[in-house]
Amino acid sequence: MLIAAVVISCAAHAGEVLKSPDGNLELTFSLGEKGEPVYSLSYMGKKVILDSQMGFVLKYKNTPGMHKIPFRGPGGPASLFDGFETADVKRSTFDETWTPVWGEESEIRNNYNEMAITLKQKSGKVMIIRFRLYDDGLGFRYEFPMENALTYFKIYEEVTEFALTGDHTAWWIPGDYDTQEYNYTESRLSEVGALLEKARTYNASQSFVPVNSVQTALQMKTDDGLYINIHEAEVVDFPTANLELKADEMKLHVWLTPDAEGVKGRLQAPCKSPWRTVMVTDDARKVLASRLILNLNEPCALDDVSWIHPVKYMGVWWEMITNKSLWSYTNDFPSVQLGKTDYSKAKPHGRHGANNENVRRYIDFAAENGFDALLIEGWNEGWEDWFGCQKDYVFDFVTPYPDFDLPGLNAYAHSKGIRLIMHHETSSSTVNYERHIDKAYDLMNEYGYDAVKSGYVGDIIPYGEHHYSQPIINHYALCIKKAAEKHIMVNAHEAVRPTGLCRTYPNMIGNESAMGTEFRSDINPGHTTILPFTRLQGGPMDYTPGIFEMDMSKLNPRDRSRMRMTICNQLGLYVTFYSPLQMAADLPEHYAPFMDAFQFIKDVAVDWDKSLYLAAEPGAYVVTARHPKLSTLNKSQEGVASLADGKKDALSGAARFVYALGEDATSADLEGAVARDVWYVGGITDESARDITVALDFLQPKVKYEAVIYSDAPDADFETNPQAYTITRKTVNSKSRLNLHMARSGGFAISLREIRK
Amino acid sequence: MLIAAVVISCAAHAGEVLKSPDGNLELTFSLGEKGEPVYSLSYMGKKVILDSQMGFVLKYKNTPGMHKIPFRGPGGPASLFDGFETADVKRSTFDETWTPVWGEESEIRNNYNEMAITLKQKSGKVMIIRFRLYDDGLGFRYEFPMENALTYFKIYEEVTEFALTGDHTAWWIPGDYDTQEYNYTESRLSEVGALLEKARTYNASQSFVPVNSVQTALQMKTDDGLYINIHEAEVVDFPTANLELKADEMKLHVWLTPDAEGVKGRLQAPCKSPWRTVMVTDDARKVLASRLILNLNEPCALDDVSWIHPVKYMGVWWEMITNKSLWSYTNDFPSVQLGKTDYSKAKPHGRHGANNENVRRYIDFAAENGFDALLIEGWNEGWEDWFGCQKDYVFDFVTPYPDFDLPGLNAYAHSKGIRLIMHHETSSSTVNYERHIDKAYDLMNEYGYDAVKSGYVGDIIPYGEHHYSQPIINHYALCIKKAAEKHIMVNAHEAVRPTGLCRTYPNMIGNESAMGTEFRSDINPGHTTILPFTRLQGGPMDYTPGIFEMDMSKLNPRDRSRMRMTICNQLGLYVTFYSPLQMAADLPEHYAPFMDAFQFIKDVAVDWDKSLYLAAEPGAYVVTARHPKLSTLNKSQEGVASLADGKKDALSGAARFVYALGEDATSADLEGAVARDVWYVGGITDESARDITVALDFLQPKVKYEAVIYSDAPDADFETNPQAYTITRKTVNSKSRLNLHMARSGGFAISLREIRK
Fold first, then answer.
1. Which residues of B are less than 8 Å from A465 in CB distance?
2. pLDDT tens-digit map of B523-573
3. d(CA A451, CA A392)
4. Which residue of B has its CA nearest to A437?
5. CA-nearest residue of chain B to A237?
6. Rounded (10°) angle between helices B567-576 and B595-603
7. Of B263, B335, B471, the CB nearest to A462
8. Exposed (0-12), middle (13-18) or buried (19+): which is B687, by Cβ within 10 Å?
9. Which end of chain A is less crowded, N or C, counting CB atoms within 10 A of the terminal residue's CB?
10. Do A463 and B391 touch (CB under 8 A)?
11. Which residue in B678, B556, B594 sits closest to B628, CA to CA?
12. Which residues of B does the annotation mark as catalytic?
C-alpha cells in the first residue's frame, strides 16, 4: 500500500503536461511531496506562472458532513489542498464555433485542449481539477462529484495561487467586497501596498479587503512585453474573488468575499467552482480580441431569444446625477412609510425630474433621433429617504409619483416607436426586492416595458452580506432568471462585475459594475482605455457615454467641476466599448448645439458581426473598427417598417438602419431593402495627445466608401477646449490611410458607408 | 434658561403618579438629576418595582440622521436615556369590552388608566413613554414621533430595567436568540447564574445570550405571595427581548436580540417599541385569567374573519418524531438538488410516512372520530438532506413525493369532512421560503387547504440572523399577513414566542415556541403546569397533547425512553391549555385500546365563552373549567349537517357538537337543534401526586348534569403505570363537590352535560 502510494506520488510528481492547440502555451500539473496540487504555465517555453498551489482550506468545525472525515495530517478535515493522490487523468480536445445572440462578432470559436485530474484523499474527499488550455489562455476550475466523502462543506479560504515571474506593471483597483467603482492605478505590483490607501476613494458602500489586494480582472504587462490577465469566469453560486498580493513573493492568491458569517462559500456536491483564468498574449490587441471568458461559460440556457434585442437609449437620468433635478418629489416628509405616506396630498418641491412634461420632452427628442428607448429614474414613490438609511421597505417598484402617468407615458412613447425602460433601485435591500419583484415584473409586462435597469446602491440587506458574497451573487442570478421567464432584459448597476454569464443568459444586456460616467469629474483621463482590458472582459458595460457638456456648473451652478474628456472621446466610446445597450447620456438641450456631432451617435450601430482591434495599450489608447450585424439592423428595419405603416407599439431604432440604408432611400424602399456596407471606427486616448494612422484595409476591395470623420479640433483639449471638433467627409477605399489627431483625453469616430452607383 | 431648566427638572423630579382603575397599583415616573427617566411600581402601597432606568443607548456612529445631533454630555448622540426634560404629560382612561374571534372567553374587558409623557432633549430628540396601568399590571412602551431630531436610528442596547425588591422565586428558561425549547428551572433569582449551564440543553439552533439572562415571559413569586410576571406585548418590527439578570443588584434589564450586524433594532420615526409589561397579582389563578398581553395589542386588522375557525386535528407526524417512519422517501441521494434530483426513478426506502395508504388510514380514523383536519408532514420533495446543512434551496413547498397523491388525498379527505393541513418546513431559510411562499399558498388555495403548519428548524438564513432578531420577526409577520390575504390560518413552529399578536391577526391560530410534546422523555414532569404562566400568556400553543403510549420502544425498538406523564395528564391538557388548534398527537393504533378514554378528546371543545381557573400554582398544578362557545359549536353543526346531506368538502368537527347535542339525537334533529349546556374541567399536576376537590358551583343552579370523570387510577404513576385510569359517570349539580386524585405527573378530565327531561 505504501509502495503503491509512492509510485502514484512519483508518477504524479513527474507531472502532467497539457498544450494549447497552437502549442504556444504549456500547462504542467503535479502533486508535491505532501500530495499538494501544483500547476505552472509557460508561453513559448518561458514560464509565465511559476509553481502555484491549488485547492481550498475548509471550515471543518460545525461543517455538516465533516464529522465523517476522521483522517488528520495531510488530507485532514480542513484540507482540500494536500494529502491527495491522483485517481484519474482524462484528456480531450474541443473545437466548435457558436453564435452569440448579440456581441462583438457573429461567430465565436471555442477551441481548447482539456485535462481533468481526479484527486482523492485517503479520507475519501474527491476533487477534480479541470484545465482548459486555449491559444490565448488558461482556465481551470475545481469540481466536486457526488460520490465523495464531502457533501455539504464550507470554504474557509481558497488556496489558488498565481506565482508570477517578476514585478510586472499592473492596472488595478483596490480589493473590495462591495464596490468596483474605483479609478485604476497603474503601478508595479510591488508598489500596490503603498498606493492602496490613496486608491480607496469614497463609495456609498465599500468594504476594504483586510489584506493587500486588488480585484479581478487584473491586467498586467511583463517587462518582456507579455500581457497577462487574471480573471474568473462563470461565477455562479459562489463568492466573487479578489486577488491578495503577497508582494515579497510576487504571488497572487484568490481571496474570496465572505458572507455575513465569514464563510467564503457554502458548497453542496455535486458542484463546481468558477473558472480561474490566466490570459497570456504578446499583443495588447489580442486581449481585446480574446473570447476566453465567454467561451468558459455555458451555452445559452434560453430556448427563445427572439425577444432580446440591442438597445440605443436616452434617459431622464443625467439631470438627477448632476443635481439639476431630483429623483424625489417632495420635501414634506422627514421619512417615508410606503403605503402610509400620502403623496397625493404632498406639496411637490418642483424639482422632480420624472414628471409627465419633462418625460414627454425626452420621448420626443429620442423618437426624432431614432433611438429605441428611454430610461426614466425617480418615477416611483420612496426617493425622499432612499439612501444611506439601510431602510428595508424602501420601494415597492409599482407605485408611481402623482406626476408620473405611467400608462399614459407608455402609450405616448409607443406611439412614437419608443419603449420606456423601467428603473428598479433596490437600495441594496435584496430582501425587499425579492418580496416585490414578481409584481414589479408583471407591471412591466402589462405596460410593455421590456428592459429594466436595476440598482444596488448602499449597503446590502440582509445585514452583513456583501455585494459580492455568495448569497447576493445568487440573488442577481435569481433576478436574471425570473426576468428571462418574463421576457425582460436586465441592466444591473452596482451588482457584481459580470464573468461571462451573458453567454448563458443573453437577457443580461448590461451591467455597470465599474466606475462609469456618473462619477463625472472624478474619472481620470485614460480610465476608458483600461476598462476594455479588465471590466469588459466579463461582459458589456452600461458606461453611459455621450456627455457633450463637460462644465457641470451648466447643470448645477454650485458644481464647479468639469468632466475630463473631449466630445470626440465620447464619440469614440461608442465603438471602443462594446455594449448591446448604449446610452446617449446627456440632455437634449446639450446635444442641440452639436447636432452635427450627435449625428454619429444616431448613426452608430450597437451590435456587430466583426470587430477589429487596430491599436491598443492599456492606460494609453484603444482604436477599434466594427462592422454591424445585418440581422440586428433588420430588427431596426422592422421598427421603421412598423412606423411607416402607422403601427403603434413598435421598436424604433430607426436611425442606425436609416444610416446603413442611406438617407436618400424613399419610404417605399424601406421594406425588404438591403443595407449598404458600413463600418465604424472609434479611437480614444488617455491624458496624452496622440496622432495615429488608421489603415482602412478592412474595407471591401475595389469599393468606394464615404467616410465621415469626427475628430478633435487641433486646439481641442480636455481641460481647455473639450467641445472643439472637426467633421470631415471624404471618399476612401481599402487602400486609404487616415491620419488622425487625438487631443489629450480625446478621441475620434468614423462612419464608413459604401457609395452606390 | 438655566433657572427654567432647574424648575422643570424639579417639577419632573417630584414625579408623576398613575393609579390602576381599582387603585391597587400605583406607578411613579420621574426624571433623575441628569434627566434620566425613572419609574417604579407599587401594589397596595408596597413597592413591587423599585426605581428603574428607562430608554435606549443608540448606536450613533454610522447611524444615518445622527450627524444632525451635535449635543454631547447628558442627552448626547448615543443617549436616549438621559438629558431629558418633560415637554408634556397626557392622561386618559379607557374602558371597552371587545370580542375575540376565538379565545378563552367570548368577551374581554380592556380597562386601563394611561399616562403619556413626552420627553425632549436639547438636541431635539423626542421620546414619548406611554404607560397603561391595569388592575392586573403595567404596560409601557417607547414612541418616537415624526417631529424629531431622530429619523433613522439604531439601538445599541435597551436600558429598560426592572429593579426587584428581593430574591424572588422564578420559573425561567435560559436566555437565547434562537430557541425557547427548554425545560423550566425553578430557583431563586440569585441561583440563576449557577444553574444556567445545566439549563442549556441541546437544540438544533441555539445562541446563548452572552450574559446571565432568562427569557420572557418570566414568572416570579415573592416571599409575600405576590405573583410578578415580566413579559412583552406586540413585538412588531423590533427584536424580541431577553432579561439580563444582574443578581448583585436584583435587577432585570432588557437584552434585545441582535441582528447579523449586532444591531438591536433599526428604527424609523414615527415608530413604537413593543410594550414592556409587569403583571402583579396576589393569586396565581389571576395570572391565568389575565388578558394584559392581548389587551395591549391592536384590535383585529382583518375585515373578514368568517373563514377562521377552531380546529381539532390529528397528524401523520408522531410516527416520524418517534422514528417509526420517516419524513424522507429514499436513501438513493447523498444530497438533493431540487429540480434536478429525479425522485420518480428513486428507489423508495419503504419507511416514508406520508404515503397514500397510510394517509388514507389516518383520514379514516380522524373522520370516524369527528375531527376537523389532518396534518401530514414529509409530503414534499427534499427531506433527504433538509436538516443541519444550512441548505438554502431546501424545499419548494409545491412538489409532492411520488407516493403522495395531493389532489387525490384532498378529494378523499374532503369527501369525509376532513381538511388536510399543509406543512411548510422552511429549515429556517426565510430567504428561500419567501421566494416560494406565494406559489405555495396558491397551491393550498387550489386544493382547499385552509391551514398551514410552518417550521423553522435549524439556523436562520440570512446567515447571522436569529430566530428572534428584527428581520426575522418581520418575516413571520409577512407570512401571517400574506396568509390572511389568502384566507390561510398559520401555526408556526420554532418561530418567535407570540406576544398577543393573535388579537390583531386571528389567523395566527397556533405557535409552538416552547418545549412541546416532540421533546418526549426530555420533558420534565410539571412542565405543563408552568407554560400557562409563561409561554401561553402571549397566545395559544400547539403543544400537540394526547400521547397515550408512553413507551417509546413500542414505536422505535432502539428508543428505551418513556414519556413522563399519565394518560389522564394528557386529557387534562385539553382544558388547562388553551388553543383554538388542538391535536390528538398519538397514532390511531395507540388510541384503539383506550377508546373509552379517547372519548374525552373527541368530546372536548376547542373554543370557549367562559373559562374559570379553579386552582393553580406554577410548577405544581393547574385546574381549569371551561364552557364552550355556542357559535363555534354551530360551525361544527354546519359540518355535521353538510355531512348528513351527503355534501362534500364540508368541515366535520362533528364529535364535539354531537357531544353537546347528545348522542341520542337523531339525524333529523341535527339541523337547528340547540345544544345542551356543557362544561369541561381539566387538571394537571407536577411530579407530586395530589388530591383535589372541585366544587361545581359554576354549573347552572337547579340543573342536573351528567359528569364523566376520567381520572388516574389509584395505582397510576408516570413512571410505573402511566396508562391506568378510571372512568366514572355520575349525576351532579351546582352544589356537588368532586374529590379527585392526580397521580405523579398525572391529571384528570371531566365532561359535564345537562341532563334533559
1. 260, 462-463
2. 999 999 999 999 999 999 999 999 999 999 999 999 999 999 999 999 999
3. 24
4. B435
5. B392
6. 0
7. B471
8. middle
9. C
10. no
11. B678
12. 518
Render the burial of A172-199: b for 16+ CB within 10 Å, e for the rest. bbbbbbbbbbbebbbbebeebeeebeeb
Task: Encode pLDDT of A118-175 as tens digits.
Answer: 999 999 999 999 999 999 999 999 999 998 899 999 999 999 999 999 999 999 999 9
Give the per-residue pLDDT at A375: 98
Instruction: With CB atoms and an 8 Å threshold, state whether B337 touches A148.
Output: no
Integer-rounded Cα Rg, in Å, for chain B is 26
Q: CB distance from B341 to chain A under 8 Å?
A: no
**How many CA atoms are closer than 13 Å to the CA of B287, on its beta-carbon side?**
34
CA B297 to chain A, closest CA, distance in angstroms equals 20
Strands (E), A102-167: 108-121, 126-134, 137-144, 152-158, 161-164
CA torsion sign, A466 to A467 to A469 to A473? Answer: positive
pLDDT at A85 over 80: yes
Residue B389 has its nearest CB partner, among A64, A261, A434, at A64
CB-based contact, A335 to chain B, within 8 Å: yes
* Alpha helical stretches, state H, A486-562: 527-530
For position B421, what pLDDT does the model report? 98
Instruction: Please answer yes or no on whether A391 and B152 come within 8 Å at the CB atom.
Output: yes
Residue B504 Cα, gap to closest chain A Cα (Å): 18
Nine-digit cell string for A406: 405611467
DSSP states along A535-557: GGGGS-----------BGGGT-T
Give the residue numbers of A annotated as catalytic, written as ranges: 518
Determine which of A108-122, A141-155, B477-491, B586-600 has the lowest per-residue pLDDT on average.
A141-155
A403 phi, psi to nearest 5 deg: -100, 15
Burial pattern A305-324, b for ≥16 Cβ within 10 A else e, equals beebbbbbbbbbbbbbbbeb
| Whether B471 contacts chain A with CB within 8 A | yes
> Which one-letter amino acid corresponds to residue B603?
D
Please give the helix or strand (H or E) that residue B465 lies within, else none: none
Looking at the complex, does the CB of residue B224 fall below 8 Å from at least one CB of chain A? Answer: no
Q: Which of residues 46-85 of B touch A (CB under 8 A)?
A: 64-65
The pLDDT of residue A675 is above 90: no
In sequence order, what are the residues at sequence separation of 6 or more whose Cβ sits closer than 8 angstroms to the Cβ of residue B633? B605, B656, B657, B660, B675
B334 closest CB neighbour out of A151, A263, A438: A151
CB of B442 within 8 Å of a chain A CB? The answer is: no
What DSSP state is assigned to residue A454? Answer: E
Q: What span, in angstroms and rounded, lies between the C-alpha atoms of B550 and B561? A: 8
Count of C-beta atoms within a 10 Å radius of residue A655: 22
**Which of B260, B392, B438 minimises the CB distance to A464?**
B260
Render pLDDT for B391-438 as a digit per residue (tens, 0 to 9): 999 999 999 999 999 999 999 999 988 999 999 999 999 999 999 999
Q: Kindly tell me the burial class for residue B529, based on how many C-beta atoms sit within 10 Å of its own C-beta (0-12, 13-18, 19 or more).
A: buried
CB B555 within 8 A of CB B324: yes
Helices (H) and strands (E) in chain B — how many of each? Answer: 15, 37
Chain A residues within an 8 Å CB radius of B472: none
Inform me whether the C-beta atom of residue A324 falls under 8 Å from chain B C-beta atoms.
no
- Give the three cell numbers for residue B618: 406554577
Query: Tell me, what amino acid is at A167?
Result: D
Residue for grid cell 471591401: A700
Cross-chain Cβ contact A389/B152 below 8 Å = yes
Lookup result for grid cell 505590483: A189
Asked whether the ipTM of the predicted complex exceeds the cut of 0.90, the reply is yes
Q: Does A44 touch chain B (CB under 8 A)?
A: no
